Amino acid sequence: MTNLLEKSETKNLGKSETKNLENKETKRLAMSETRAKKIKHSYKVKNPEDALLLKTKYGDVVIEMFIDDAPNHTKRIKELVRQGFYNGLKFHRVIEGFMAQAGCPRGDGTGGSGQKLKAEFNRRPHKRGIVSMARAMNPDSADSQFFICYGDCPWLDGQYTVWGEVTSGMEFVDMLKKGRDPNGMVGEDADEIISLDVIADL
Questions:
Q1: Which partner from 19, 53, 110, 185 sits 20 to 30 angstroms from 42, CA to CA?
Q2: Using CA atoms, how far apart are residues 124 and 169, in angstroms rounded to an integer?
Q3: SS3 of 65, please?
Q4: By residue range, what is the domain housing residue 163?
Q5: pLDDT of 2-46, one tens digit each?
Q6: What's the CATH number where 56 sits?
Q7: Which one, of 117, 76, 108, lies nearest residue 89 by Cα?
Q8: Residue-wise DSSP of 119-143
């Protein structure tokens, strides 16, 4: 299982034609170039190619990526995003005041895309809004799972690859259903990623 280590553990390490369509179908409908451009520019980001739009049922979350700090991780994440890998996956582990974790196709923290990433630990601190990669005990075991920090988590610094930061919509991350057990596992009614897109592609 890909889990974050707790602090104590790390010490040792017209009439709309779309009305009756399902959400998945409406996502594929074409929109005018003008409207697409307007939507893209409505998000205040430094570079639309290096920023993600994560849609939840509560609202939109904008994540700006640290390309220079984690080049291989951000490249792989964008590949997965453009494949639609994250769409529909759940925030399966959510701990109040700590973090919200997603990116497991099995929904239980044991799955991934099948491609492990070599760690790119950097000097970015784990603070509120930071997005970092989940992993198993092996430092080079990160795959597709990531977590968003709810607060400052200095015991994670230098042990997990920080690759982005929420720059808008953190209040919606706060609204995600929290886990019921000490490990933070949410269960069947966990909130899902409706869609995750590179903003340049909108």
A1: 19
A2: 20
A3: strand
A4: 18-201
A5: 666 665 554 444 444 444 555 444 444 555 665 555 556 678 899
A6: 2.40.100.10
A7: 108
A8: ----S----TTEEEE---SSTT-B-
Kindly state whether residue 76 falls inside one of the protein's structural domains. yes
Q: 54 with 61: CB under 8 angstroms?
A: yes
Of 184, 180, 69, nearest to 126 by C-alpha is: 69
- The amino acid sitting at 4 is L
Number of folded domains that form the chain: 1
Count of CB atoms situated within 10 Å of the CB of 151: 12
What's the pTM value of the predicted model, to 2 decimals? Answer: 0.82
> Is residue 12 situated within a structural domain?
no
Q: What is the pLDDT of residues 36-73, one digit of tens each?
A: 555 566 788 999 999 999 999 999 999 999 999 999 99
* Burial call 8-22: b when 16+ CB within 10 Å, e when fewer: eebeeeeeeeeeeee
